[in-house]
Amino acid sequence: MEPHPRDPxxxxxxxxxxxxxxxxxxxxxxxxxxxxxxxxxxAAGETLTxxxxxxxxxxxxxxxWLKGWGSGNKxxxxxxxxxxYPRVMRAVDGSDSDFTIHIRNVQPEDTGTYYxxxxxxxxxxxxxxxxxxxxxxxxxxxxxxxxxxxxxxQRMRPEQSASFSCTTGGFFPKEIEVKWFMNMxxxxxxxxxxxxxxxxxxxxSSTVMVTLQKAYVHSQLICxxxxxxxxxxxxxxxxLSRVLQVPPxxxxxAEPSPVEVNKTVTFTCLVKEFYPANVSISWLENGIExxxxxxxxxxELRSGLFQLRxxxxxxxxxxxxxxxxTCMVVHDGQASTNTSAFLWISNMAQEESRKGSPINKDDxxxxxVVGVVCTMLAVLVAAILYLIRTKQMKGKSSPSARLHExxxxxxxxxxxxxxxxxxxxxxxxxxxxxxxxxxxxxSQQSEYACIQTNRAPNGDDxxxxxxxDMVxxxxxxxxxxxxxxxxxxxxxxxxxxxx
Length: 499
Ligand SMILES: *[C@@H]1O[C@H](CO)[C@@H](O)[C@H](O)[C@H]1NC(C)=O
Ligand SMILES: *[C@@H]1O[C@H](CO)[C@@H](O)[C@H](O)[C@H]1NC(C)=O
Ligand SMILES: *[C@@H]1O[C@H](CO)[C@@H](O)[C@H](O)[C@H]1NC(C)=O
Ligand SMILES: *[C@@H]1O[C@H](CO)[C@@H](O)[C@H](O)[C@H]1NC(C)=O
Ligand SMILES: *[C@@H]1O[C@H](CO)[C@@H](O)[C@H](O)[C@H]1NC(C)=O
Ligand SMILES: *[C@@H]1O[C@H](CO)[C@@H](O)[C@H](O)[C@H]1NC(C)=O
Ligand SMILES: *[C@@H]1O[C@H](CO)[C@@H](O)[C@H](O)[C@H]1NC(C)=O
Ligand SMILES: *[C@@H]1O[C@H](CO)[C@@H](O)[C@H](O)[C@H]1NC(C)=O
Hints:
The chain has helices spanning 8-21, 27-30, 348-355, 358-397, and strands spanning 32-34, 39-43, 48-50, 53-55, 63-67, 74-78, 88-90, 101-103, 112-121, 127-132, 136-141, 148-150, 161-171, 176-182, 185-187, 193-197, 201-211, 220-227, 234-239, 249-255, 264-274, 279-285, 288-290, 299-300, 306-315, 323-331, 337-343, 401-402, 422-429, 450-454, 489-497. The protein has 499 residues and is mainly beta.
């Protein structure tokens, strides 16, 4: 502190006063500096208010604000040199007792303990330390900087393990929480690495390992950071497509193959499921490049991978028989993939001879067999249709007969004359075990049959058999609780209306 020049008049007036106050034990007891704030926490960028008031006797000498005590102290504000501290403003300008100051735009490096210090003019006119407040501990909390996500330097292939990191810095206090997600699913990550930066703030770096898959083209990683200074967590995202490299699978096929002389063969190169899209295709015939007029563009699949189909037409001249046609694919600056197919020309002479060969006779045999079988089938169908027809005609002329479901009671199993002029006939079935109780209506000429499982009668004597032209039997779904006595055989009652 350089000594402050004082105007002589004021000094002359002040001197007796000073001498009076400087009497041992007087000023020190009655004068005090109050710093009511013990601890303060303020967000970076905001204005910090440091309160300080003095009370007691008037002491000649200035008041200063110091940050830190002892050797490391720094003057923040000096009453005598207001203009030297542009960030600092007095709360009550010119007051003799309120030395509260405002510090604008505080930064993490402003963290420290601030003292309001009263100086006193000594005999030689220099300021010397007189009293100080208890100090205010200020911590500046700072928000973490926007997240920065990074991945591998080079593209990586499926099954490879890639490391991604999320960094942020300049935050205070140290406590910070990091979460990783891939497509909203939480990922396991190592503990974040936190380091001190510029003394008062911290930097953080968190790393996660991901085993890549070709299905990850549309996937994204999300890093989420929560800190006490934040209302909502910070988020950063990383598209896995930025680092994914899926090499294509390449297939070549010729159509038609073999081909007749002088015809055209189309070779198709199918380049499947690759990422990214940059791929180049060239065609080689026995190692020499063929010019292809049109090279189609890769098309994107739903998975985000790409696919490309390239075709080349080759004239099948005789001397090209056995030629190698190669599809050379260079994907994303990687080494080329060569896939080949052969051009086969069928021997026309051999084709001709083949036509008269026993193989052809075999073909004839097959044709004959197929023809005979077909004819037989046709005849059979015709016969069945005729039979059905005649039976239907018969049904029309005969008195109408009905198959009638017998009453649930077992008495229906025996033949009975019925007041409604109905005749009952029981049909005995041995094989069927299931209960059939359903009416089937076919047409006007149809009869109805209801077949019900029932206890076998004691003998055949009391049964009347009805001759039926046609019986439509249909199985009903299994009864929910079949009666035990129905286990053995089924019976159907046929009811015939009397004329
Ligand atoms: C300063 O601290 C001392 C002891 O810690 C306490 O007795 C005193 O009251 C404090 N002064 C003020 C102004 O807070
Ligand atoms: C700090 O000082 C200002 C200005 O004098 C005053 O308005 C405020 O109430 C004081 N705060 C405390 C905690 O003393
Ligand atoms: C502040 O530091 C200076 C040296 O930088 C030292 O001379 C002075 O005594 C210190 N003042 C206090 C109050 O610690
Ligand atoms: C700490 O974080 C800050 C802000 O993000 C950045 O500028 C600085 O380079 C980082 N320092 C280290 C050592 O990572
Ligand atoms: C195929 O074409 C060449 C030249 O165009 C011709 O000389 C040859 O006779 C042709 N061969 C047949 C089987 O058509
Ligand atoms: C080449 O491609 C264009 C457009 O994609 C198409 O119109 C044209 O018929 C193609 N030519 C050949 C020879 O395939
Ligand atoms: C593919 O063919 C080209 C041209 O003949 C050759 O330079 C390249 O080495 C071949 N690549 C592979 C993987 O065989
Ligand atoms: C082409 O080569 C195949 C295999 O060597 C052979 O069977 C065929 O007869 C050849 N075609 C001609 C037209 O020479």
